[in-house]
Amino acid sequence: MQRKLWWKVGSLLVGILFVVQLMGCNNTLSIDKSSQNKSEAVSNKIGIVDLEELKAVHPEAEVLKELNKQIKDSQINLEEQQGFLNLTSQNREEHLQSINEQINKRLQDIKSEYQTKIDERVEKTKEELNAYKESFKQETEEKFEQKKREIRAGLDQKIDKRKEEQSTELQDYQQKLNKEYNRKILNLRLKLQMLDLSSKERKEYQQQLAKLETERKEKLAKKKEELQKKLQEYVSEQQKEAEEKLRSYHQKLTEQMQQKINNKQEEANQELQNYIKEQNQLLQQEIETKREELTTKLKNTIVETEEKLDTNITERNEELAANLEKVKEDRNRLEKKINEDIKERIAEVAEDKGLDVVLTNYSSSLSATNITEDVAVKLKE
């Protein structure tokens, strides 16, 4: 019944909200037909709201909920009383047998309340688990990145050290070559400069000099190439070793993360099962207590009804009906107030955001600004 009522209110508010767009947003929707004809390319700024969510967060939502509960209880009481009016000596046993059906109507609300608690706890547990997974995943990624930096720094240090060692080795080798060739090269150069040589002799000395210099240069180049090859092999080997360390560390982190998540999930599931078990026990206790209470009350009422059928029941019905009407009036006034509050806050937010239209019924493909949260904030002010 409450769902149908809210559906009617939601339908009513569609009209109200379009009034909001015309009257509340002076800077946006004071457009007449002539301005609309200026350009079809100008699009309305559209806002959307979730009416059910706004009604749920309204400061007086709980009061409205309680009034609806009172109405429901009163209607059940009236139905029971109407049944009592038809009670006669012949059908007394029949009414006594229908007590369970009447009691079950009362107990169904209790069951629904406990089921709601359980559903909320299940949802909360899911959210907590997801938050834990995300937090632990982020922590694991940070540890992995830190390890990667450490391994990379160690690799760079090893490579730099090997380069320094090879540089020293190359310098030593170059000095060795110089010691081996410099004297011979110097002697040939002095002969070319100091001696009076024939063309043939000069040419022979020049060829010997060129040969020695080429040999020294080639040996040095060969040594450089040899060292460079060794360095590349060393770097490749160290990179593979570093990658293996990183892979092993990542696997270890992943296994630890999964184990902790599994433990947390088992712990959460156990807590949830305990909570459900506890709520079921409380539900059974409350149902048993309420059933005994209602059984006694209804049986006594049937007996009293049989004794005072013409007077008490009629008066009770009138009292219940009057009370029901009063509660309905209170409920209607409160619903109207809540709707007015929501309409006013929507108008304020729409004007602040420069919206032309605010819709309550819309498709998911509509390009619009959702102002539900902004309106909710204003409702709570």
Automatic annotation (TrEMBL):
Gene3D superfamilies: Skp domain. The keyword Coiled coil applies. Keywords: Coiled coil. Residues 61-344 form a coiled coil. This is Outer membrane chaperone Skp (OmpH). It comes from Acetohalobium arabaticum (strain ATCC 49924 / DSM 5501 / Z-7288). The lineage of its organism: Bacteria, Bacillati, Bacillota, Clostridia, Halanaerobiales.
